[in-house]
Specification:
Layout lengths: L1 H17 L5 E8 L9 H17 L8 E3 L2 E3 L5 H14 L4 E4 L3 H12 L5 E4 L16 E3 L4 H14 L4 E7 L2 H16 L3 E8 L7 H8 L5 E5 L5 H12 L4 E4 L6 H7 L1 H4 L3 E6 L4 H13 L8 H18 L7 H9 L4 E3 L4 H9 L4 E3 L17 E8 L2 E8 L2
Length: 401
């Protein structure tokens, strides 16, 4: 990966010195490099950069131009930072498209403030809240990850199947937390479970003992925390363990990270239940896993495969569109992601370019799914059961509705 990125930098510098006006095609990346998901973001970015490196190694884009990926920090939790990041990508970097954002609030802010007004397609690999579906986006905002309307229901079903019939819930008070809590609560109660208390909390505080007092007073022994591994979720679990009020913990994708176990303690979280978007057993999954390992990052990292697919799909759409212009890209994206067409697997860039040049239809089957976008830019997906065992989150298998 380092050699590939170095080669890309050298090639880009050489062409720039030669004065070529269209030496580069840019796909931006915006994500929470700082803030409550800062430990989750690097492998997500690595997933997207792997796609870029493969494309450049196989001849580049649009007749040999170099694909580059400038990036910016949304902080995840600051809407103005997300807006500024998107503005820089759209109006300063002049990107053709954007991978991101990651947190839902950042995606909504980036879309509304800069991407949609600028006609820039965004594909988020991690924004799971139902609020993304509801955006008035002129068909410019897509995602390669399923909505929490689905994940919340699956988490509820999992908890019920494991015999948990009463839980206390606390969620971070933003689009992500609210959407996930609503879906989980509806599914849990519909299945016969009892939500003893359902309490919102604000991210970024140092003390949640007051909220934990209210949660534990409900009498529930199981605490479901729908928040972020490097933010409020971490603090709440640490203080809950110290208080000894709960015997079981559960969470969703925002909590699945090694930093959470390291910060709270392996003994404290042993047996914690969680869910996260997973990858179905498709040919592209194993291809991506091997390429990611060779590139030096964990292919099972949450949202890494979805980020790879987002970047590869956008590059295919640009190639299909025939230029680095923004106009027409959303239609091209739908075309390359959907059947019918010759199947393109992760890494098969040269094959795709040849087929597109010959006027053939293609259908990308990715690392994390088939990505047949619906009218809202959403995809069907699968959810993976996770549990803390032996000091780490481990996958326990795919879950079905």
């Amino acid at each position: 990966m380092k050699k590939s990125l170095l080669a890309m930098a050298i090639a880009a510098s050489g062409v720039a010195l030669a004065g070529a006006a269209q030496a580069e095609v840019k796909i931006g990346f915006i994500g929470g490099f700082t803030g409550p998901i800062e430990s989750l973001t690097p492998p997500i970015f690595d997933g997207a950069r792997l796609a870029v490196a493969q494309i450049n190694e196989q001849g580049g884009i649009l007749g040999g131009q170099t694909l580059v990926m400038p990036n910016a920090d949304t902080t995840c939790s600051d809407a103005s930072a997300a807006s500024n990041a998107a503005d820089r990508m759209v109006n300063t970097e002049n990107v053709t498209a954007i991978v991101g954002a990651l947190c839902t609030g950042a995606t909504v802010a980036a879309a509304n403030s800069a991407a949609v007004p600028g006609g820039v397609v965004m594909v988020s690999p991690a924004s799971t809240a139902p609020a993304v579906t509801e955006l008035d986006d002129n068909d410019l905002v897509f995602r390669t990850v399923p909505s929490d309307a689905y994940q919340g229901q699956i988490l509820a079903k999992l908890m019920l199947e494991k015999g948990f019939d009463e839980v206390a819930v606390t969620y971070v008070n933003n689009d992500y937390g609210r959407g996930l809590a609503d879906a989980f609560t509806a599914g849990f109660e519909a299945g016969g479970g009892t939500i003893a208390v359902n309490l919102a909390h604000e991210d970024g505080r140092a003390d949640y003992r007051s909220e934990l007092g209210s949660l534990s007073a409900s009498g529930a022994e199981t605490l479901v925390v729908l928040a972020y591994a490097d933010g409020s979720g971490q603090t709440i679990l640490r203080q809950a363990y110290e208080g000894g009020a709960f015997t079981q913990y559960a969470g969703a994708d925002g909590m699945v990270g090694s930093s959470l176990v390291e910060a709270v303690g392996a003994d404290a979280l042993e047996g914690m239940i969680a869910t996260r978007p997973g990858s179905p057993e498709l040919p592209g999954t194993e291809i991506f896993n091997q390429a990611a390992q060779e590139a030096g990052f964990d292919p099972s990292a949450v949202f890494a495969a979805q980020a790879y697919d987002a970047a590869f799909l956008l590059a295919l759409a640009i190639e299909q569109n025939g230029s680095a212009e923004r106009e027409g890209l959303s239609q091209a994206l739908r075309s390359v992601a959907s059947a019918p067409g010759e199947v393109i697997l992760p890494g098969e860039w040269e094959k795709a370019v040849q087929l597109i040049a010959a006027g053939e239809e293609i259908n990308y089957e990715g690392a994390s799914g088939s990505h047949e976008f619906d009218e809202n830019g959403d995809v069907p997906g699968v959810v993976l059961e996770m549990a803390v065992e032996g000091g780490a989150f481990v996958g326990k298998g795919l879950l079905q509705d």
